[in-house]
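Entry 14. Structure prediction run on the chain below.
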Amino acid sequence: MAVTGTRPRLATTAFAVACASVLAAAVVAAAARGDLVLVMFGIGLSIPIVVWGSGLLARLMNRYGWIIWIGGAVLGVVVLGESLTVFMVAGAVLIVLGLWLTVTGRN
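Output returned:
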């Protein structure tokens, strides 16, 4: 059964934003070294940045489909980055394929 429609995308996006917020809070807490005021300030600052940044990125991805392919290539290189040369070539192939699919209207 294929997952299609708006609801799965919304759920995936909400989950990604929640994970990013938790990660940002953990980084802020580690950087504050126990100072509660700095933790509160950092969380209060990071959450709007994550929310606005994800909204901007979503609009850019809707307008320019090739951004998704570049993101996938970057993730592939980061996750599988043991042999960087091989994965850079694979990433370049994915980017070229994504650009071709986007230009030809097959995204």
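Residues 1-63 form one domain.
Filed with the rest of this week's runs.
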